[in-house]
Amino acid sequence: MALLQIAEPGQSPVPHQTKRAVGIDLGTTNSLVATVRGGRSEVLSDAEGQAMLPSVVNYSSADGARVGAVAQALSSEHPADTLVSVKRFMGRGRADAQQEAERAHYQLADNEEGMVSFVTTQGTVSPVQASAEILSVLETRAREALGGEIEGAVITVPAYFDDAQRQATKDAATLAGLPVMRLLNEPTAAAVAYGLDSGEEGVIAVYDLGGGTFDISILKLHRGVFEVLATGGDTALGGDDLDAAVAGWALEQRPCAPLSGGQHRALRSMARKAKEALSTGNSVDLPIAEIVADAQSLTLSRVDFEALIQPLVKRTLRACRRCLRDAGIAAVDNVVMVGGSTRVPLVRAAVADFFERKPLTDIDPDRVVAMGAAIQADILVGNRPEGDLLLLDVIPLSLGLETMGGLVEKIVPRNTTIPVTRAQEFTTFKDGQTALAVHIVQGERELVSDSRSLARFELRGIPPMVAGAARIMVTFQVDADGLLNVSAQEAATGAESSVTVKPSFGLNDEQITQMLQASFSHAADDKNARQLAEQRLDAEQLLDGLEAALAADGSELLSQPECEALHRLMKELREQAASESIDDIRKLTEQLGRASEAFAARRMDKSIKQALSGVSLEALDQEVSE
Ligand code: ADP
Ligand code: MG
């Protein structure tokens, strides 16, 4: 695939006037904001010197939302009013998110678009609103640190985020009053922070083990441009699971009556502290008595901890193996470690062992994504005189539209680098057709019924013409943030119609993987289904045309037996078309085509005669002699 470098508009006309630009890592567990100052990327801290803002929003007070550590402190007391991990719900439909919400003890509300929102004491709150609260705290922090309004922000998202999830992230930024220049894939941001973009070529694995998710991405650097070769991971595996393993172990050692919701959260947070301490220490004490009266303290050694989490670490490596296979890569040049959980020494050792390469860990794994985003923001806002790199991402699933017979025509194939514009010409199916139904679908399968429907719109005002004569240009445009705009334009009149796709809910990486796997395992079936649909379409087109012709000229140009013979064959083909046999439909279609040839010839004669009937003899003579 050709990678095109694209000039970015809005370079600063005054080279030395720096604009206020920030990079934001809007994380599932923690969020950060960074900026480039004096040529160096640095994370901005709050008044207490804390850089990491826990991605927690509390809605138990009428005075407004509380964000970060203060919200976290309220979570035991107000579990249902304290939203954690809202990123998991971004751009997802209610049905889609039900299980996740139950696990987190949230109560979901219904809203018009079928999107998720949570019921809190202060009313219903959407994941976009909660994320906007987090962004707004970071925006204030940046504004105060930089002494003025932020002129441009880059916000990072997981590489597998789909249109709906990306759009939701943008919406949250808009709500928070942040001017977003670009959404950037998290692994790409991490690679940029390590300056890996300054190399010429190379393959980079980004291993990101955060609080609740594990992402592995394989990036390819080619002439200063990153391409995502493959992504994988597990949306339900992260530091939280390490905490759960420790908490489970504690309960096994000290059996007690079932814990309340608050006690449970308290035990989890104790387990988390213990886990983090074990990244540097060799053993840690768990003062269980603080949670369950009369329970004795416990001590957990590093060795026992490693035995507890070994299965979880192995699961991440299995995902790495799959991802390498998807990318068609045997070895990588660099491994970048991202996410707080990569501080666990066992994780580092296992990753080094797996990739046979010492992973890059010099930059704080919590901060590396925000720092990379800040570098990109600095470039995009125009603070660097040299154009510098522009990072291009790819779309995870093919985009296409529905054609006659319920078939998918792929317009932008999966893994195409974005931004991208692709156009293709289509035409009408029926004589006199004046409108076109455009149905946009996503996925790798051949049939619309097996694909994911993204949007529909209609193009009206096509002048009536015979089937196949109209020319309609359909253009798919995916912008740098992965958002899709589709437009259709009729050539003769210029009539135009378009839609920006905002699907009602998103797909997670697991579903994308499933859709891809389904397309591989159904490849043969799909080919068959496509041929069948096409054959049926041929039959239908012939039958329709013949029907109209018989109604117009049948009684005049055909004898009774001829007419009956044609009708018999037509009936037979109509029945056969409902069958699954491609060959039989093809044979009958051909037979009917031959049987109607004489009729077609007579109609041709008739229409020529008609055309000539008004022409004078002299004119005809002239034409003939010419
Ligand atoms: P996210 O990307 O999901 O927002 P982070 O990258 O901030 O998450 O990682 C948060 C996770 O990292 C938490 O589970 C936290 O306990 C874990 N973590 C932070 N510091 C350490 C440490 N020193 N040792 C082990 N785990 C840590
Ligand atoms: Mg993260």
Automatic annotation (TrEMBL):
Gene3D superfamilies: 1.20.1270.10, 3.30.420.40, Actin, Chain A, domain 4 (3.90.640.10), Substrate Binding Domain Of DNAk, Chain A, domain 1 (2.60.34.10). It comes from the Bacteria. InterPro entries: ATPase_NBD, Heat_shock_70_CS, HSP70_C_sf, HSP70_peptide-bd_sf, Hsp_70_fam, ISC_FeS_clus_asmbl_HscA. Keywords: ATP-binding, Chaperone, Nucleotide-binding. Pfam families: HSP70 (PF00012). Transmembrane segments: none annotated. Belongs to the heat shock protein 70 family. Chaperone involved in the maturation of iron-sulfur cluster-containing proteins. Has a low intrinsic ATPase activity which is markedly stimulated by HscB. This is Chaperone protein HscA homolog. It comes from Candidatus Seongchinamella marina. The gene is hscA.
